[in-house]
Every structure is written in structure tokens, then in C-alpha cells.
Amino acid sequence: MNKGEPSSCVFCIPSRYWQCFVSIACTAFVSVALVLSCIFLTTSAHAITKAVPDYKVKAALLAQFLRYVQWPETDGKWGGDIVVGIIGEDPYGEFLDSALSAQTVDGRNVRVTRFLNLDDLQPVQVLIVGEGNRFKSLDVLKKAKDWPVLTVGEGASFVEEGGIISFVTDSENNRVRFHLNMKTAKKRGIGIYPRLAKWAERVLD
């Protein structure tokens, strides 16, 4: 190498500068990873690929849906909390509790309660009827028809029967989507923000 000629060998960099370069490169990699994670999390909610268990995806979506729903003023029975109830068999398990833990909506705490029997069912803000539930959806919807409750179920027929939100799994593309019944929501006095309706694969007016 001629005197005064710049070196083209990266390994000739002094060790203290090389360590600094590696540190900067690692930091940049982490930053890119965080950006990509944010992009994934903000992807349109109506079609989420199931890279995680089905009901974990649904629990995460439901937690986001609560931010785009308005209920009439509570009667104070639940202390002003937004209560998510599950009737009968619980397919969500710890996924729902984890998704809603420490969450607040408009300054109101969110908590989960479970009803084992139809006779035990009480008015809540959100009522989930899981797939394969031993209770018929029609029976649950009939009992809750006069309550300002956001009913959540499974399959396209749930919203046709009078439910408000139904999760639909596209087995071909391995995605979770949802349908929305705006007509029933209005009857129940529940306000749905336009963004949530925009995310739905199908909207019943």
C-alpha cells in the first residue's frame, strides 16, 4: 500500500471505532424491527393473519373494538366499569383477561365476568357467545334484546340472527375477519364509530 493511500480494508479500523460501528448497527436493526412491528399492529383490523392462536387474535381485536364503541350511561350496577361478559363455555380463556388487563376506555376500567348459565345472565356492556357454546345464540340474544349490550359471536349467521359483531375465520387464507350489524347496534342505543364499520368485511344496515 502506497504511503498516503486510503485503506480499503474495513478490518483495518481501530478496535474502539469498530465496536462503536457495531453498536450503532445493532441499534439501527432494533429500530427497524420496532417500526415493522408498529406497521403490523396498525394493519387494517378486518383481516388479520393467524400467526398466533385463533382466540388470542380475537381477544386482541375485541380489545381494540372497545375504543370505537359508545354505550348509554351506565346504571351504576358495575361501578361504572365496562364489563365484558362470557356466557357458558369460554373459548378465550386467559387470552381475553390478558388483552383487557389494565385497559381503560374513556376513563372507565374494563373487566371480565363469566356466566355459567343463561339464568345467571345480567346486563353487561359486552356479551360474548363463543363458538360451540351449549347455549343457542338465539336464546342468548332473546334474553339480551332489551339491553344496551354489544353482542359478539361466531360465524356469519350470528349477525343475521341479531348479534352485533361476529368473527368469521377464512380458512383458505387463514385470516380472522368480522361482520357488523349496525341496525341492531342502533336499536340497542349503541354508537359505532365509522372507522370500526370501515374495517368490517360486511356491514348490515
Brief digest:
With 205 residues, the chain is of the alpha/beta class.
Question: Which key features would you list for this structure?
Answer:
alpha/beta, Rossmann fold, 2 domains, two-stranded antiparallel sheet
Model description:
- With 205 residues, the chain is of the alpha/beta class.
- The protein folds into two domains: 10-41; 48-204, Rossmann fold, CATH 3.40.50.
- It has helices spanning 15-41, 54-65, 94-100, 137-143, 156-160, 182-187, 194-199, and strands at residues 48-49, 69-70, 82-87, 104-105, 108-115, 126-129, 150-154, 165-170, 175-181, 191-192, 202-204.
- Mean pLDDT is 77; it is low at 1-51.
What would the average pLDDT be, to the nearest integer?
A: 77
The CATH class name of the largest domain reads Alpha Beta
The radius of gyration computed from the alpha-carbon positions, rounded to a whole number of angstroms, is 24 Å
Oligomer: single chain
Tell me the number of strands.
Answer: 11
* CATH fold-type name of the largest domain: Rossmann fold
Secondary structure tally, helices: 7
General shape: globular
In CATH, what is the homologous superfamily of the largest domain? Response regulator
- Kindly estimate the percentage of residues that lie in beta strands according to DSSP: 15-25%
Low-confidence stretches: 1-51
Classify the secondary structure makeup into a structural class: alpha/beta
